Amino acid sequence: MKTRTIVGLALFASFLAAGAAVAAAETEEGDHFELTMGFIAGARRYDRESFSRESGGGDVAGAKALVEPFGNAPYDGCTALGLRYDLRLVVAHVRMTVGVDFPFASFAPADTRRSYDVAGVEREITVRKIRPYELRFGIGGELAFGRFAPFADLVGEVDWVDTVLAVDGATVGYEACSFGFSARAGARVYVRDWFFVAAAGEIGIVGQRVWGAELSLGFSFG
Question: Could you tell me whether strands 121-142 and 148-167 are parallel, antiparallel, or unpaired per DSSP bridges?
């Protein structure tokens, strides 16, 4: 966690410093709105989440207080692939972003099957599903050089995650909600005056996100 925090803050600070050094530079791009949509890939960790039972498991003793499975695979690290939609306002090189991510956790349920002591009874537990939803808010900066615009953001995100366990065949649903920060940096290249391609990478500082990458298309207007 300390390494992630240091690297993330250093990455974000370096881009802010570079932006401050040329903040007075004239660019070809003025204030505008952006709408982007694209693909994301990365890694998430949910083993520090506080999961509470949402549904099912009424006949399974101890299901409400189940904790141990959430500290093991795939909660301790899994691949996430999905979609991203962002709406952004850029004013005087300052970026203000609101967006949503729809990642899908990728893992093999068969690899998660283990036996646990639940309320004094040995039970076989399998992770059937992990389904995250992420609402993101970003503040950052950018500078345009012709059709090329590098940028950096500090992103805060509200993370919801639903998960389903099979406890001796009985389906039990759990949910959790948390907040985290990540540092994001990348660049966009204009193909037309109103249409661009963007790529970015990010690293988690606090929260579920470990690292991430994005490839997106966007439209600029205003």
Answer: antiparallel
